[in-house]
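Weekend entry, working from home. Most of the wet-lab plans are on hold until the incubator is repaired, so I used the time to fold the two sequences that have been sitting in the queue since the last round of cloning. Logging both here for the record. First:
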Amino acid sequence: MSRGSAQRLFWCACRAGIALLPLMLAACATYHPRPLAHHSDLTTLAHLTASAQRLHGKGVREHAFHASRGLDMTDVVTLAVLNNPRLKADRLRLGIAHAQLLQAGLLPEPEVQAGFSHPTAGPPPLVNGYSAGLMEDLSAIITRHDRRAQARARGDKVRLDILWDEWQVAYKAQQLYIRIRAQAREMRVLGAWRHVCEKTYRSDLVALKHGELTTAQLAVDQARQEQASAHWWSLKRRQYKTWLALDALLGLQPGVEPKLAGKAKLPSWSAADFHKALMHMPERRPDLQALQAGYRSQEARVRQAILQQFPALSLGISRGQDTQNVQTIGFAIHLTLPLFGQAHARIAIARATRAYLHKSYQDRLDEAVNQVHELHGTSALLRAQLRKERARWASLRTMDRSNRQSFDDGMMDTADYLDTHAHAVAVHMKVITLEAQLRRAQSDLALLLGQAPCPNSTLPSGPTG
């Protein structure tokens, strides 16, 4: 190549680089500040939304609800998953995982080297010198498949972790729905008992003024009235805390108490269904699926570490001219020699991490099986106890009605009636408590067995692809 041709080629390359510079600058990202908020974004019931577009599961559809008619359990669960503030932040992690997968599939940027020298003294003929080169890391091509597999599995783990968080929020919403409905029933029972005690105490005060009642009898009825009132207020405080918990779960402003309707519909497990669900639990629970995805990611990391034990190779070409008009063209190879055991250390770390994840998954699986059996046994005990208490309540309810008639007819004194009625109220409260405990245990069991919350709702039904 002649001197003039080489110079023309060099300046053409420079002009091409200058021409492409605006395009490269246009592709660059720009910085825009995003300040933090200084106020809460909790909403009111009127602004709650149930848009299926904010879910990432397959087969998701729109769900319409009407707060004025009352929210059933499916409504509460759906709104909790869609509007929970923590889940809104959690779902943004999917964007990070997608960006990491994109990054894992990209090859390293090529390195361009260029230089220019102008002679100021020396024997003639003197010319301007230049050099240009292009270098690319070829070893990244070898590990690209495993990097992508690692990032893909890591993205699956993030997605499944988010799905498990959604399930936990959904089942927590179920628990709060069950608790609020039970507390409403308890408030009605205790409110009626409190009203009876207060009415009796006011009648006692009148009777005491007319000398028809002793102070000892008044003290007994006063203690009963104060105890009933204390129990009512204690339940009122617990109910208030439950409502606050539900408001927080739904992303509502504190103090909003949406109208609830319907009944808790929860699955009951026969012995055959229970053992079948237990056998398929690792395939249905998102948290166990997430651990499996994390293990797959580490498997790819082990393969990547093994491939990286070989010398890292970079290849490049170069073109240059010195100040004595000597023109050259050539190529360069860069090798990273594995002389000091760095590659073997990376392999050892990757294998040790894989062994840890393997054992951690087994521990989680064993723990899940133990929890499932414990809840299944607890549910059976609660069911048996509930049958017994319901039978007692049915008998006491009939007796209480008879005692009420006798009391109204003047054939039973106040103290005896209130004692028997108090016992009936206590058994009734126990039945309500046991029913709520059994429903909550069934809800927990369904979660641990990998039963999707509210299968007929708009929520994702389980781990996908």
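Second, folded right after the first finished:
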Amino acid sequence: MAEKQKAVAKQEKVAISKRDPWALKKWFSVHAPSYLGGVFIAEVPAAEPQKLLMRTLEVSLYDLTKDISHLPIKLKLQIHKVDGLQAFTRFKGLELTRDYIRSLVRKGTSKVTAITEVKTKDGWVMRVTVLAVTTHRIGTAQKSAMRKRIIETLTKKASEMDIGQFLKEALEGVMAADLFVAGKKIAPLRKVELAKIKVLRYPPEEEAVAVKEAVAEAASS
């Protein structure tokens, strides 16, 4: 009798899944990292919690702050922990919109792009792309000197901050202002922006959380 009931229940479950795959899914509330305010981002569906792990969401910084000036900043956040119906993310990257970048570069100016890897004092390794726009055209030697000075300043600042401090200065424009001051010693500048940030390597404790959650969820399923 028990085996018959199990068979019927299994058939009903299969029937439901064939009719409507969404019937077996749950909705999870996704939150930003604590160092980005921990605010609610969105609700996402998943049949099982472990299937959310490592999923990446792209949102505008405006969605977190409601500051209209933050619309050009796109954030990539990765789910790395699920607790019940709550999903928590970590920072994965940042990028300015192409339209905004195009608006910065005008005729008669020069664009200087500096790309380097930085490491925060708590072990986050990131590749950062800095865009500097001059007030007038400059030569190759000046571009090279400005690029070097910007990279030196950025690397030093990152090494003295944890990820929360680094992102706070990056998103609030403080970092760009400091790089502006460093770069204008080589040539007059009109604008400096952190155009792109990509996390290359997380600190061990951040990686351990993701693996632990994945193993725990798999074991309980």
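Plan for Monday: verify the second prediction. The two ends are 26 Å apart (CA to CA).
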